[in-house]
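RECORD TYPE: inverse folding
INPUT: structure tokens
STRUCTURE:
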């Protein structure tokens, strides 16, 4: 009798489909998405002390038109229209000069900072 029960259980389990190995059109379409582009690497990271005694950090990326700004308010991605132009975000504008930056935030006075 125990052998019969074992065979019945084995037969029932073999009938279960643990997941279809076939594919359908929706699966194929989802897998054909464009490759993900990685952001450019960091070219230079600098920390600046500002006239109001605050500290900001800026990561200048290798594409020369992207900067990551970190302030007490958070982290912001800034973009320049072309190399050498000011970096702009939603409410920030950053002008980078040799050894210093000028940071302007919406509703605030321009802040001058030195490395």
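DESIGNED SEQUENCE:
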């Amino acid at each position: 009798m125990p052998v019969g029960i074992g065979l019945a259980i084995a037969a029932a389990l073999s009938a279960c489909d643990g997941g279809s190995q076939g594919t359908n059109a929706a699966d194929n379409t989802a897998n054909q998405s464009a490759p993900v582009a990685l952001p450019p690497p960091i070219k230079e990271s600098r920390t600046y002390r500002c006239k109001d005694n605050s500290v900001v950090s800026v990561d200048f990326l290798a594409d020369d038109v992207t900067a990551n700004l970190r302030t007490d308010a958070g982290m912001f991605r800034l973009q320049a229209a072309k190399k050498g132009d000011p970096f702009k975000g939603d409410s920030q504008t950053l002008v980078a000069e040799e050894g210093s930056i000028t940071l302007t935030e919406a509703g605030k006075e321009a802040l001058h900072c030195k490395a």
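NOTES: The chain is about 15% helix and 40% strand.
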